[in-house]
Amino acid sequence: MGYFLQQTINGLTLGAIYGLVALGYTMVYGIVGMINFAHGEIYMIGAFISLIAFTALGLVGITWVPLAILLVLVIAVLFTAVYGWAVERIAYRPLRRSFRLAPLISAIGMSIFLQNYVQVLQGARTRSLPQMLSGGFTLWETEGFSVQVTFIQICIVILTFCLMGLLYHAVEKTRFGRSQRACEQDMEMAGMTGINVSRTISITFMVGAALAAAAGLMTTLYYGSVDFFIGFLAGVKAFTAAVLGGIGSIPGAMVGGLFIGLVEAYWGGYVSGAYKDVSVFAVLILVLTIRPTGLFGRPHMEKV
Amino acid sequence: MKIQRILTVSIVLLALNTSLVQANDVVVGVAGPATGQYAAFYDQIIHGAKAATEVINAAGGVNGNKVVLDIQDDACDPKQAVAVANKFAAQKPAVVIGHFCSSSAIPASEIYADAGIPMIASAASSPTITERGLANVFRTSGRDDLSAVVAYNAIIKQKLGTKIAIINDKSTYGRGLADNVKAGLNAAGVQEVVFDSLTQGEKDFSTLISKLKFANVDLVFFGGYFAEGGLLVRQAREQGLKATFMGGDGMASSEFASIAGAAGDGFLFTFYPDPRNNPKAADIVKKFRDSGYEPEGYTLYTYAAIQAYAKAAEDAKSFDGNKVSKALHSGTFNTVIGEMKFDKKGDPSTEPFIIYTWEGGKYKPLI
């Protein structure tokens, strides 16, 4: 029982990170109907910026952890949002009137570009950060196995909840949220009613990037190690999570992320660590064959 | 029009002539991961190669010819390694030092065998490299099966643990090492409680660590490289797993210390006897340190590979690949890692591995 609980904690923490990245995929798909394949790289850039910011703050002398985390969060969100905006402007906006496949290919190209961009600027090696926040506490002691929760894991879960709350508030209650929901439903009509569609799309990309930056910050804190290639696998798994939850649905992305994290943890913990990634992609195949609209998605209906 | 024609022809001729290698230079190819996670190791190799080249050129070169290095990147990827090998096969360097990763060295060596180019590996440790009967393959590094022997002997004799977990990273090197350790332990009657693997490039091992904790493991043998090994031990200490960790020579990089931090202390690993402690190597080591570089890891093994090649080429009085390979098989070489010969398979006669432990960011032999 204790072991199951421990793997659940591991899975939820992992899932929180996937969920935040999945939100970016789902929001972009909801509004422009395309998969932003470069989103995994945005997450990787967020992780790098967090690493650099932590190191810089350390040099300046700010070492009190909660303050450092907050400052780094702000810095990472700001810079990564700029990257998100830039990616949209350079790679997607010019292709908005083009055929369906064009922005998709452009996205893949952007992903390769960003990977190599970081590789050239930051070097190909793994960058690491000394442990910022260590220690935790024992949740439960049973049969010789103690269930541990580290402070970082708690931090991650709390931060994810706060960001989800902020996002929910933004989408439901603010003007941007209303414009975004309108554009999701019908972009042309929304444009005709006076909504600045281009600006809404840009802001959606930036919000997605901001959430990915938060996920990147958590990765830097939790694992302390980043390299230019982490965006690829995390991006694909987060995409799986978004599809599982129903692409286009915001609660779906978060639930999908947590689900994928748990699948990985349980499979790795009970069956075999060797095929952990295979289990995640098997879920993707199952979802696409059995219920392509995902858990929370609605089937796309054309009203004639 | 005529002037344009003349200009174009002159530019083309100039371009064809901008090769920096003169016809008489001895080209030594060097292949390894300049990009990717293991670039840190390649750094060691390049430093060793450059230093050896400088010293040899200062003493008059090999058979009177200057040595020039041709450094290529195979990203520790077999496909890219084959591309590099084909490139070398066309350009015909006198010898290739490399490849770093066993998974790259194996396919590349076959291409070199066809092209008649000797290959001297200074780090690749898979036994398969020298087991295929290729006469042009040599190494100054040790083999994983010997590394595994030292590892499991130490585990049994020094009673390093009772509940043992063997983890590998699914690479040719890691899997090979883990399998050999498992075979050795099982043959001695010791059964491991967990045999599992992880994926290279992954960061989250919390699931695996919880599994090890649940099985009450007190010794974890990890066949893999420092990037994953460092993260593994770091996450283990965070979760409260107090087991001793042990690995192979993939841990022998100072980057391990920066990834694992204080959690890396006490991580045991097998590695070649440190050539820096060899009194005969003292002045070469001093030269490195004076230039600001610490010749750790494979640096001096690469240095030795080039020394051996230079002597073999002088013994054979030629640069023909087959003649030099014969000279490498039959000669005795006084290198920075000691006096050595190559056996029939191409393996070195130098002492195999010993056990080191990481402590405070440096490694030292475990007595």
UniProtKB/TrEMBL annotation, chain A:
<feature type="transmembrane region" description="Helical">
    <location>
        <begin position="68"/>
        <end position="87"/>
    </location>
</feature>
<keyword id="KW-0812">Transmembrane</keyword>
<dbReference type="GO" id="GO:0005886">
    <property type="term" value="C:plasma membrane"/>
</dbReference>
<dbReference type="GO" id="GO:0015188">
    <property type="term" value="F:L-isoleucine transmembrane transporter activity"/>
</dbReference>
<keyword id="KW-0997">Cell inner membrane</keyword>
<feature type="transmembrane region" description="Helical">
    <location>
        <begin position="201"/>
        <end position="222"/>
    </location>
</feature>
<dbReference type="GO" id="GO:0015190">
    <property type="term" value="F:L-leucine transmembrane transporter activity"/>
</dbReference>
<keyword id="KW-0029">Amino-acid transport</keyword>
<feature type="transmembrane region" description="Helical">
    <location>
        <begin position="150"/>
        <end position="171"/>
    </location>
</feature>
<dbReference type="GO" id="GO:1903806">
    <property type="term" value="P:L-isoleucine import across plasma membrane"/>
</dbReference>
<dbReference type="GO" id="GO:0042941">
    <property type="term" value="P:D-alanine transmembrane transport"/>
</dbReference>
<keyword id="KW-0813">Transport</keyword>
<feature type="transmembrane region" description="Helical">
    <location>
        <begin position="99"/>
        <end position="118"/>
    </location>
</feature>
<keyword id="KW-1003">Cell membrane</keyword>
<feature type="transmembrane region" description="Helical">
    <location>
        <begin position="278"/>
        <end position="297"/>
    </location>
</feature>
<comment type="similarity">
    <text>Belongs to the binding-protein-dependent transport system permease family. LivHM subfamily.</text>
</comment>
<dbReference type="GO" id="GO:0015192">
    <property type="term" value="F:L-phenylalanine transmembrane transporter activity"/>
</dbReference>
<dbReference type="InterPro" id="IPR052157">
    <property type="entry name" value="BCAA_transport_permease"/>
</dbReference>
<feature type="transmembrane region" description="Helical">
    <location>
        <begin position="12"/>
        <end position="35"/>
    </location>
</feature>
<dbReference type="InterPro" id="IPR001851">
    <property type="entry name" value="ABC_transp_permease"/>
</dbReference>
<keyword id="KW-0472">Membrane</keyword>
<dbReference type="Pfam" id="PF02653">
    <property type="entry name" value="BPD_transp_2"/>
</dbReference>
<dbReference type="GO" id="GO:0015808">
    <property type="term" value="P:L-alanine transport"/>
</dbReference>
<dbReference type="GO" id="GO:0005304">
    <property type="term" value="F:L-valine transmembrane transporter activity"/>
</dbReference>
<protein>
    <submittedName>
        <fullName>Branched-chain amino acid transporter permease subunit LivH</fullName>
    </submittedName>
</protein>
<keyword id="KW-1133">Transmembrane helix</keyword>
<feature type="transmembrane region" description="Helical">
    <location>
        <begin position="42"/>
        <end position="62"/>
    </location>
</feature>
